[in-house]
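Objective 1.3, modelling of assemblies. Example input:
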Amino acid sequence: MTAPDRPFREAVIDLAAVADNIRTIAGRVAPAEVIAVVKADAYGHGAVPVARAALAAGASRLGVADLDEALALRDAGVDAPIVAWLHDPFADFRPAIAGGVELGASSLDQLERIAAQAGDRRAAVHLKIDTGLSRNGVPEAEWPAVVARAAELERDGRIEVVGVFSHFANTSREADASQLAVFERALAAATEAGLRPRLRHIASSEQALRDPSSRYDAVRIGIGMYGLTPFGDGTTCTDLGLRPVMTLRARVAAVRRVDAGAGASYGHLWHADRPTTLALVPLGYADGIPRHATGGGAEVLLGGRRRPVVGRIAMDQFIVDVGDDSVEVGDEVVVFGDPATGAPTADDWAEASGTIGYEVVTRIGPRVRRTPAGDAAAANEAAEAADGSVPEAGA
Ligand SMILES: *Cc1c(COP(=O)(O)O)cnc(C)c1O
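Predicted structure (tokens):
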């Protein structure tokens, strides 16, 4: 057997799919701008290549949670606008301000700290109003004081309020409507205070794809860009015209013929009801395969067909039942990917394990090599080789 030119475990990141998904969504939400959300290492896909592909396809800005995530993009040479919105209470904002990173401000205290650390360069701020998610964001009762102070700091030349934003609770259309009503009041109060934020944004993928009234000047798109569904109602990526970006695959590590009655994997939760062939897939919960998918009806694509996962998912491996078909050690197994290829999706795995596709892709572990693919991968490499700048659209 000759060694294939492929790693044992691999997540192929299709940057052409990132570009297609961004174009699809941008076309749907125009004239609203697309802020591509690349927090958590681009939901496990790799922040730098995904950011470059999204910007080249027309995203106007990047969104991250932490300052460090924004600074890592700057270090990689990404010079597009970036907004970061979740801060350590003791954060040093100076490197971010110096690097032109835009800052979400969720309280009067945070606003004061940002303004106090602005030096020669004004800090670009997006003020966050809590419209009902009850996480961070300024409570409505405190909003008038915050916008008044922001206007003062703007006149003093310490900050520039470039945006006002909020985040939905993804609860129901009625709840969305009441959050939008709070957002409208907050925008009116900001105007009243003398602020003229260019970017009003509240929608993430779910509302951006469903509700035109939520789009304002920009939408923050995470999961849709990765080709997974934001909806919990059975709407699939295919229904939305989106293509999954990540394909998780491995090579069969062992094949075993077993008799009827044989138990497989820890605890023998599963027994063969006939003589059958089992194939061992070298991915487990340490690699992000949800242990909760055990017994949940998850499948993989192997030998051109869907095969059921059987028995306990272990730390490093799980078993699939291939019946009487012939499977060999070294054959490719696609755990999830693009449904157009016949593979299950990360959303299917989420369904089998009682979670959401977001969690499935975000938790893929460090033993899995990320391999960028698609035309944009070449463009990314060229950009890196040149000066780290962002490739032109269509490159
Ligand atoms: C993660 C996040 C998003 C992206 O949400 P998706 O549902 O993945 O589109 C948008 N805005 C904020 C504030 C977030 O934290």
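The first strand starts at residue 9 and ends at 14.
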